[in-house]
Amino acid sequence: MISFSIYVVDDEETITQGIIMALETRYRVEAFSTAEAAIHAIKDQPPDLVLLDIGLPGMDGIEALSKIKNLCPDILVIMVTAYEDLNTVISSMKLGAYDYVVKPIHMEALEVTIGNALETIRLRKEIEFFQERYLRENVPCFVGESDAIQDVMEFIGMVAKSPDTPILILGETGTGKELIANAIHYRSPNFKGGLMTMNCASIPKDLIESELFGYEKGAFSGASASGKKGLIEEAANGTLFLDEVGDLSLEAQAKLLRFLEDGEFYRVGGTKKLQIQTRVVSATNKDIDTMIQDGTFRKDLYFRLGVIKVKIPTLNERRDDIIPLAKRFLYEFSKKFNKEFTGISEETQGALMEHVWTGNIRELRNLIERGILIGRGPELNLRDIGMEEVNRGKVSEQAKDEISFTALPSTGIDLPSVQKSLERFYIEEALKIAGGNESKAARLLNINHHTFRYRRKKLGAG
User: Fold this and answer.
1) CB atoms within 10 A of CB 62
2) 251-279, pLDDT tens digit by residue?
3) 182 vs 176, 329, 413, 452, CA distance in Å?
4) CA–CA distances in Å: residue 384 to residues 127, 345, 392, 412, 440
5) Which among 32, 160, 247, 421 could bridge 188 via Cys, Cβ 3.0 to 4.6 Å?
6) pTM to 2 decimal places
7) Distance from first CA to last CA of the chain, Å, rounded?
């Protein structure tokens, strides 16, 4: 449950008491009669919002606003003034005030202004909730509520405990394989060492070996006069993450296999045997079995890299995570583009839940980035992300064609009863197929877990 705190700064006790009585059932409210006392409290425990009177004794509201914004730029400040002085209002807005109200205060109007202000930070608080839940110690934030991704996170929590067992991450493009590699590193005994990453697909094949193993001076034309350490050495006592490992040349594969077997390698052009301890985590979206049959990937290297295999579910397989991820990206890009988006419309959330994600999390991220960039807010809508109702209708028509219907009898039917019976039937069938697992059953019906649970309870299914 997200909660908000409000400081009321006004020297008129009748006003502060009236505001407290109106707000205390929904917010944590504290009152201060001077700006100095309020600022002292803000240093110890910043609130979400401050109602700040301009005409205060001692330090006035304008000076106090400046100090509050210097202390905590994220605090929202609503100025309270006894008369609507345009110059004062402009000054306060330039200093970062969110809005202003004029005395005598009309409580209903004030509550609307406060509600609008707090809505702008509700999204940030939701993200903070996710981060507190999933960010443990130094582990990078991996947003996910679905059973599918929670199973993966629990699994890597166990396998990461070994400092040197190789781990192979399998998954489609855009599923978050690098985030999983980061999580493995920071949950392992190697977290104090370096985490080095190499995308094998982005480096020319004739340079991969020198990047991976390093080289001695004069090893090739253009080589540094002093030689260079490779990523394996840089990752000593840490983790080496090889992304798109299926793009390694056969020669580089042979050298990598030798290193995995005994921890030994040679720099390019070198004769001195080097020995390093590091864990190798690799990832690929390619069909390694087919590559082995084609002779483009070594079978023995595959077995050595994949002592432990981690399969990352697609976004379509973890639909409970779509909206939390979308909100995470909404917050990220609203901040990046200095936009004031407060949320995602229900209609848009429905479209996101129905969409077939061929590009996985990366596609969702790009879609939200586009929407924030071209949208006006305060809510992200279908037009912003380019998902018009007509596109969703086509999906519905396609699904309709795949279902056979009986003819309507001349006496008619009780359509609401038929709809309930049909929905109850498919919910129960999905539960049977999924062995009672609600998340799996929801995916079979292409609805999110929360909707499934609600409909199941309402219909008394299963």
Assistant:
1) 17
2) 889 989 999 998 888 888 888 888 888 99
3) 10, 19, 57, 33
4) 22, 11, 15, 42, 31
5) 160
6) 0.60
7) 30
